[in-house]
Amino acid sequence: MTADLTYSAWKKDHHPILSQFNGKKLFALFSAGKDSSAALDLILRAAPEFGFEVESHAGAFPVHRYTLAEKERISTFWLKRGAAITWYDMDITDAEIRATPNPCRPCQDVRRKLLEKILSASVKDWRRLVIMVSFSLWDIVSYSIEHVLTDMYSPKTTENNNIDCKRFRETAQRFYPLVQMKEGYSIFRPLIRYNNADILAVIAREAIPTLSIPCEFREYRPKRILQHYYEKMGLRFDYQRVLDFAGASLRLPVLSAYTGMEKEEYLQDFF
Fold first, then answer.
1. Segment 98-104 long-range contacts (CB within 8 Å, at least 24 positions apart)
2. What's the pTM?
3. CATH topology (fold) of 7-136+175-216+254-269
């Protein structure tokens, strides 16, 4: 995979997928971080060429990152690109998740519940829906490391095994760029073929504004520590090799393990 992540290179890599989106509505999950910002830049360029609509939705949580000034600054940039960001405030405070052992878990649950609520209220035709999420190649590398270390070193208790199994089933489907569900909607991950350096290059080249307030809970995510190590070492990954490893060594489930799920089960428990 080329390190020069331009629109033309990305379009070439994803042309068979993008060609399926004609006439559809792409629901972009936006956090204003580097990954979702780079993905939105690319997908807005593709929309008129491939004939689909784009809506951008952002859950403003945890609250301390999304000040009024931050949201206005970022919204102004995207409005000039023709994308109006819809921001959603949560009925929960940072204090409520700060008191938990790992704030990242309830934060993810809050976002998942919000997505389900928005989709239930707004989607009229699920066959037209494409949900875009911005996982990168580093995300799926970190999932691989997580599962290897968990399998080798974690205590083998029934409770731990159940938690690990659910976590694996949740993260395993994120290795695939496109998941087409039986009810007609699709999940699209436009960045999982690309390294962090590729994504940062898009942000710098296009002068895209991202959140300037760091998350106070970021140290709860050990993948950040590993990511910094690999960046310092100048290491890069190849998507196909990561996918092949996950399939052979982690026994990655095939897509059919997910595509037949009812949307309520998938969106609540696996998305």
1. 98/217, 102/220, 103/62, 103/217, 103/220, 104/217, 104/220, 104/221
2. 0.91
3. Rossmann fold (3.40.50)
